[in-house]
């Protein structure tokens, strides 16, 4: 068969006719090697276009089989001199390979889809998501917990705690009752009279571990001016005690967060040094802004103005993990 110039320069895939298959099978049966296609010029070769061949090499070709007879054909890859490079597979074999590859592709596709779907169901608020087991320490009016619960559509993954008893809390904060009510509806675990300095031994908490343990604006109370060393020491003791306890309650890759003002005299607390002394390393310091937490009202939490908010100014969320 005459090949035109362009075809000569291209490798081709030949479909051999049924007659040839029978011939080849016969030759193989008789112990002879499969003969080159040269000299079989008068046979019924179907040459696939070069583009189709490339597709086939990329496993992207569609093999269409018209009935059982078609399955019996063999496909050979030939050079321009019609020498057999590779005797490929029967159409049946190719179909099963293509089907297997398609199945694998579909499986990995569905795994990917499952991952994406599960990720899309995970709700995030800044550093926190609906899959984290979260412990909130030293809550004020529980508006931070309520913000997360609302955004997640559930607070079943949150344990929210206050130092104050429930009775005292609802007196101190006018929105506490409403926040507690909606948190209960969202499945939150609410605990009162939880001291950050001993929370590790709390009967409900001692056997649990958390992915995120959070204390926003820890403050030991107003016993002097903020720059007094006595006052600073009180604050430092509170933060140190919190970090030590949290260290024993955080999961292996979990994080302990403290949100704190970074300007003087609050910078004197030296939170990073305190953490290092508790076997924690800083993984990130992120500028804090209240607007990331809709509905959150930071509270003074002490004294006659307990329910008042305070300007957060420049502050950061410090994230620590176990060393
Ligand atoms: C400035 S307020 C911040 C309240 C709340 N975290 C917020 O962001 O609105 C400080 C909080 O620390 C709490 N606190 C003080 N000492 C504590 C302790 N030993 N254990 C737990 N909480 C404590 C107080 O009850 C108070 O609610």
Can you offer a commentary on this structure?
The chain is 35% helix and 21% strand. By secondary structure, it is of the alpha/beta class. It folds into two domains: 5-119, no CATH class; 123-322, Rossmann fold (3-Layer(aba) Sandwich). The strands form three sheets. A seven-stranded mixed β-sheet has the order 9-8-7-10-11-13-12, sandwiched between helices. Strands 2-1-3-4 form a four-stranded antiparallel β-sheet. Strands 5-6 form a two-stranded antiparallel sheet. β7, α6 (143-152) and β8 form a beta-alpha-beta unit. α6 runs parallel beside α8 (176-185) and α9 (229-247) crosses α10 (271-277). The protein is globular.
Mean pLDDT: 79
Count up the helices.
10
Q: What CATH first level of the largest domain would be assigned?
A: Alpha Beta
Ligands bound here? S-adenosylmethionine
How many domains in all? 2
Helix content range = 25-40%
Gap between N and C termini: 76 Å
- Structural class designation: alpha/beta
Count of distinct strands? 13
Structure characteristics:
323 residues, alpha/beta, Rossmann fold, seven-stranded mixed β-sheet, 10 helices, 13 strands, 35% helix, globular, binds S-adenosylmethionine
Task: Give a nutshell description of this structure.
The chain is α/β, with parallel strands linked by helices.
Secondary-structure map with pairings?
Layout: H1 5-8, E1 12-15, H2 18-29, E2 46-47, H3 50-57, H4 67-71, E3 74-78, E4 84-90, H5 91-121, E5 124-125, E6 128-129, E7 134-137, H6 143-152, E8 158-161, H7 166-172, H8 176-185, E9 189-191, E10 210-216, H9 229-247, E11 250-261, H10 271-277, E12 280-287, E13 315-322
Parallel strand pairs: 7-8, 7-10, 8-9, 10-11
Antiparallel strand pairs: 1-2, 1-3, 3-4, 5-6, 11-13, 12-13
Helix pairs in contact: 6-8, 9-10
The structure holds S-adenosylmethionine (SAM).
């Amino acid at each position: 068969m005459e090949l035109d110039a362009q075809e000569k320069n291209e490798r081709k895939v030949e479909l051999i006719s049924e007659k040839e298959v029978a011939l080849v099978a016969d030759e193989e049966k008789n112990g002879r090697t499969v003969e080159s296609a040269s000299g079989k010029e008068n046979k019924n070769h179907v040459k696939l276009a070069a583009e189709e061949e490339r597709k086939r090499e990329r496993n992207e070709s569609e093999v269409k089989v018209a009935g059982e007879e078609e399955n019996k054909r063999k496909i050979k890859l030939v050079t321009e001199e019609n020498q057999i490079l590779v005797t490929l597979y029967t159409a049946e074999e190719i179909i099963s390979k293509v089907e297997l590859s398609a199945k694998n592709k579909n499986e990995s596709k569905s795994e990917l889809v499952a991952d994406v779907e599960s990720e899309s169901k995970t709700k995030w608020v800044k550093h926190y998501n609906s899959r984290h087991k979260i412990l909130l320490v030293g809550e004020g009016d529980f508006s931070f917990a309520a913000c997360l619960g609302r955004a997640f559509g559930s607070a079943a993954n949150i344990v929210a705690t206050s130092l104050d008893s429930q009775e005292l809390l609802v007196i101190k904060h006018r929105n506490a009752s409403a926040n507690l009510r909606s948190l209960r509806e969202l499945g939150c675990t609410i605990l009162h009279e939880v001291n950050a300095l001993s929370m590790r031994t709390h009967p409900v908490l001692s056997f649990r571990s958390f992915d995120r343990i959070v204390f926003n604006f820890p403050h030991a109370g107003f016993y002097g001016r903020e720059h007094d060393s006595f006052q600073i020491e009180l604050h430092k003791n509170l933060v140190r005690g919190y970090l030590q306890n949290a260290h024993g309650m955080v999961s292996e890759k979990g994080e302990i967060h403290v949100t704190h003002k970074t300007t003087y005299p609050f910078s004197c607390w030296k939170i990073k040094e305190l953490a290092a002394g508790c076997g924690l390393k800083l993984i990130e310091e992120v500028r804090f802004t209240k607007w990331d937490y809709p509905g959150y009202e930071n509270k003074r939490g002490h004294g006659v103005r307990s329910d008042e908010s305070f300007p957060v100014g420049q502050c950061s969320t410090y994230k620590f993990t176990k060393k």
